[in-house]
Design goal:
The protein is an alpha/beta fold. The protein has helices at about 85-95, 115-125, 145-155, 170-175, 180-195, 215-220, 250-260, 325-330, 335-345, 355-360, 370-375; strands at about 50, 100-105, 135-140, 160-165, 200-205, 230-235, 265, 275-280, 285-290, 305, 310-315, 325. About 25% of the residues lie in helices and about 15% in strands. The structure holds S-adenosylmethionine and iron/sulfur cluster (2 copies).
C-alpha cells in the first residue's frame, strides 16, 4: 500500500496505526504503516539499529583498519554510494515503526561525516509507535569530539561512547597507528560530560600482549569519574585484522585482575539480554562492564540490525552478505514497500555466529566477512 506523502501541515494528524512523521522539513515525509514487532526465526525482536555514516576514519586501529589494508591506495566508498541524511532518516523511521528503540551512529569515524548534527536532529525527531523518543547515541574514537560535543547535544544526541584502548601514549599510538595522543581523547570525554552527553561510556578493546597491562590503570583512572569503562574482547570481525584466539583476554580474566586491585561485586542486568556484564567497585567508586563476545556469546539475545554506509542491511556483525536497501530507496520504493522488505529480512534471520564459534560448530561465515569499519561496530 502506498500512502500519500504528507505536507508539513498534515503533521498534526493523530492516527494510532501510523507512526509520527519526521518533524524536520528537509525530510520527505511519508507515513509508515506500523507492523507488529518483528521477531526472527529464533524469537529475537529487532530493537537496536546501528547506522554507519562513513567508512572512513582518522585512525588505523590495528584490530579494525590495519594500515597495510587501509593505506593510501584503499578505495573508500564513492560519495554517490553513501546514503544521504534524508535516506538514512527514512530507513531509520521505517525501522522505528518496526520496533527499533535505540539508534547508534557509528562508522568508520562518525564525526568525520560533515554536518552530522543535521542528521542527529532528524533522527532525534523520530518517535516510537508508543510516542516516546528514540534513544539516540554515538560511538566515536573521540579525536574530534571536544569541538563537536556541545553541537551534537544541542541537536538531540543523548549519549556517547568513546573508544580508548590505553592511557599510555606509546601503547595507544601503537594501537591507533596514526600517532594520536591519549590527552586529546581524554579532552573529548570531558567535553562530552560537560555537554550533558553522559553517562559517557569508554570502550577498551583488550588485545593480549598489546594493551592488557593497562587494564587496571584504566579501571583506576575512570573509577569515581562517572565514566563507565567497558572492556571488549578482541573479536574476529572481518578478515583483515589477523585475529588469533591467543590475543583474546577473556572477560573473566579482566574481572579477576581488576578485582585483585580494586574489589568488585556483580551488578544485576538492567534489562534481559544486556550485552555488557556489569560489575561495581565495592568502595562505591562506580562500575565497569565487560563485553564477552568471544567467551560468552550473547547471540540468543541479539536484537541488533546494522545499516552500512551504503545502505546495506546486515543482521549480524559476522555476516558475509547483506540486503540492499539503497537500491530499493533509489528505485522508488514506498515506505510501505521498504517496511515489508525489512520485515521479510528480519523474519528470516537465524544468525548466531559467536555462539557457533564458542561451541566449535562449523561456522557459516567462513567466506569474506564484512569489515567492522564498513558495517559499523
Ligand atoms: N570509530 C569509532 C570508534 O572507534 O569508536 C566507531 C566505529 S568502531 C568500528 C566501533 C567499536 O568497535 C569501537 O569501540 C572499536 O573499539 C570496536 N572494535 C573495532 N574492531 C574491533 C574488534 N576486532 N574487536 C572488538 N571490538 C572492535
Ligand atoms: Fe577507526 Fe574506530 Fe576502527 Fe579505530 S575502531 S580504526 S577508530 S573505526
Ligand atoms: Fe548478534 Fe551476530 Fe554478534 Fe551473535 S554474532 S551477537 S547474532 S551480531
Amino acid at each position: 500500500m502506498r500512502v500519500a506523502p504528507e505536507t508539513p501541515r498534515d503533521r498534526a494528524v493523530v492516527d494510532p496505526v501510523l507512526v509520527d512523521p519526521v518533524r524536520v522539513d528537509a525530510v520527505r515525509v511519508e507515513r509508515v504503516p506500523v507492523d507488529t514487532v518483528l521477531v526472527d526465526t529464533r524469537g529475537r525482536a529487532m530493537r537496536d539499529l546501528r547506522i554507519s555514516v562513513t567508512d572512513r576514519c582518522t585512525f588505523r586501529c590495528v584490530y579494525c583498519m590495519p594500515k597495510d589494508v587501509y593505506g593510501r591506495g584503499h578505495a573508500f566508498l564513492p560519495r554517490s554510494d553513501v546514503l544521504t541524511f534524508e535516506e538514512i532518516t527514512r530507513v531509520a523511521r521505517v525501522a522505528v515503526a518496526h520496533g527499533i528503540e535505540k539508534i547508534r551512529l557509528t562508522g568508520g569515524e562518525p564525526l568525520l561525516r560533515r554536518d552530522l548534527p543535521v542528521l542527529v536532529a532528524q533522527l532525534s525527531a523520530l518517535t516510537t509507535p508508543s510516542g516516546g523518543p528514540v534513544d539516540l547515541a554515538l560511538t566515536t574514537n573521540g579525536a574530534l569530539l571536544a569541538r563537536q560535543a556541545a553541537r551534537l547535544h544541542e541537536a538531540g544526541l543523548r549519549r556517547v561512547t568513546v573508544s580508548l584502548d590505553s592511557l599510555d601514549d606509546a601503547t595507544f599510538m601503537a594501537m591507533n597507528d596514526v600517532g594520536f595522543p591519549v590527552a586529546k581523547v581524554l579532552r573529548g570525554i570531558e567535553a562530552a560530560q560537560e555537554a550533558g552527553l553522559g553517562p559517557v561510556k569508554v570502550n577498551m578493546v583488550v588485545k593480549r600482549g598489546h594493551n592488557d597491562h593497562d587494564i587496571v590503570p584504566m579501571a583506576r583512572h575512570f573509577a569515581g569519574t562517572g565514566v563507565v569503562l567497558r572492556f571488549i574482547e578482541y573479536m574476529d570481525v572481518g578478515t583483515t585484522n589477523g585475529w588469533r584466539l591467543e590475543h583474546v583476554v577473556p572477560s573473566a580474566e579482566v574481572v579477576e585482575r581488576i578485582d585483585a586491585a580494586m574489589p568488585l561485586e556483580p551488578v544485576p542486568p538492567q534489562y534481559p539480554g544486556e550485552t555488557s556484564a556489569r560489575w561495581r567497585f565495592r568502595d562505591g567508586g562506580g562500575e565497569i562492564g565487560v563485553i564477552s563476545s568471544v567467551t560468552q556469546a550473547f547471540c540468543h539475545a541479539c536484537t541488533r540490525a546494522r545499516i552500512s554506509t551504503d545502505g546495506t542491511l546486515f543482521t549480524c556483525l559476522f555476516a558475509t552478505g547483506g540486503h540492499d536497501l539503497r537500491g530499493l530507496i533509489r528505485g522508488g520504493a514506498s515506505d510501505a514497500e521498504l517496511a515489508d522488505a525489512m520485515a521479510a529480512i528480519w523474519r528470516g534471520r537465524a544468525d548466531r555466529y559467536s555462539e557457533a564459534r564458542g561451541a566449535a560448530e562449523p561456522l557459516a561465515a567462513h567466506g569474506h566477512r564484512i569489515e567492522m569499519s564498513y558495517i559499523g561496530g
